[in-house]
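Bumping my old thread because nobody answered last time. Still need a sequence for this structure:
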């Protein structure tokens, strides 16, 4: 690629980015905002060769990575977020089974994309690699998430329950929503390392067992981290907020959305990446006792994932639940009928 072609590509990208920003800022149409947002998320694919320093082969591979993440995230959201709404959010065991089946179908049909900035950042920290590729993946994941959620909202009339997504609990300080997502994301990333990168589960071996183990950890996070939904996937959380409201979450009022899902989630990813680097170094015999086997990696990874879950549920989660309870109780006391206040009766649910 010559200098003229590279300059033209960069100029076109700048024009598209500026056009998207101007349209988004000056239109009230949710459809127009979604269109320019998807256009902006596709810029890495359009500039793939330029991002690879003019290497057309590398650019083609980067563009394919973007497409795999975009399609994979859209399919993941549409399939895995559907079972609960389809049957009315009953919380029954078959919903969990349906979630696992949907998770397997989305992963297998799309070739195993990462579909989650938490996993992308954790892999980058643990294994190194290209920061540019990680950014391309994340932008594709956000764009694909928007498409997936819009597909769900479009079919909501055919579902028994409402389509819902993650959001930080309005009664909690930022401290708790941050650590809810941070520890949940750390547990999920460590589970992926332990069950998807050790030799017991590589190259398609024990694929269904691998997905079941990861799903169990994810289900534990979902059941225990209600302070934020949870999402443990910043792209899923932001794309849901955009698809539901027609606009990206605002940067105001302490920005609980970004503190919880992006700051908390990515900090948890970085923590998991550093932990896995230490585990692989220890289990590989580079320091400390020699355990040069994959079983040690799997056991240590699962143990650390369990520690992250326990750290929330045993202490911080208890405090968060107490804060929510006391806040709702206080609001219920204020909302009582004057006659109820006169007789000093408390809200029935308490």
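Sorry it took so long. Here it is:
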């Amino acid at each position: 690629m010559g200098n003229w072609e590279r300059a033209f590509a960069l100029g076109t990208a700048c024009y598209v980015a500026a056009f998207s920003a101007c349209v988004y800022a000056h239109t009230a149409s949710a459809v127009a905002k979604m269109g320019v947002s998807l256009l902006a998320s596709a810029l890495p694919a359009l500039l793939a060769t330029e991002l690879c320093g003019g290497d057309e082969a590398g650019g083609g591979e980067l563009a394919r990575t973007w497409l795999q993440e975009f399609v994979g995230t859209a399919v993941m959201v549409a399939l895995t977020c559907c079972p609960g709404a389809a049957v009315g959010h009953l919380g029954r065991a078959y919903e969990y089974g349906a979630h696992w089946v949907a998770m397997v179908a989305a992963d297998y049909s799309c070739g195993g994309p990462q579909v989650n900035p938490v996993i992308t950042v954790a892999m980058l920290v643990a294994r190194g690699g290209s920061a540019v590729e990680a950014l391309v993946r994340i932008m594709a994941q956000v764009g694909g998430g928007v498409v997936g959620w819009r597909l769900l909202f479009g079919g909501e009339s055919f579902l028994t329950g409402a389509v819902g997504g993650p959001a930080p609990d309005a009664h909690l300080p930022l401290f708790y929503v941050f650590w809810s997502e941070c520890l949940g994301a750390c547990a999920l990333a460590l589970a992926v390392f332990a069950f998807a990168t050790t030799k017991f589960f590589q190259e398609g071996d024990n694929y269904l067992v691998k997905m079941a183990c990861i799903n169990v950890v994810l289900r534990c996070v979902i059941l225990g981290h209600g302070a934020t939904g949870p999402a443990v996937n910043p792209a899923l959380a932001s794309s849901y907020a955009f698809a539901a409201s027609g606009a990206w979450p605002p940067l105001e009022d302490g920005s609980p959305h970004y503190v919880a899902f992006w700051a908390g989630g990515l900090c948890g990813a970085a923590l998991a990446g550093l932990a896995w680097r230490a585990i692989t170094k220890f289990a590989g015999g580079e320091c400390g006792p020699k355990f040069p086997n994959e079983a040690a990696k799997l056991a240590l990874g699962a143990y650390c994932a369990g520690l992250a879950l326990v750290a929330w549920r045993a202490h911080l989660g208890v405090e968060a639940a107490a804060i929510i309870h006391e806040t709702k109780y206080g609001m219920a006391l204020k909302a009582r009928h004057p006659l109820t206040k006169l007789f000093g009766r408390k809200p029935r649910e308490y």
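The chain has 15 helices and no strands. Let me know if any region looks off to you.
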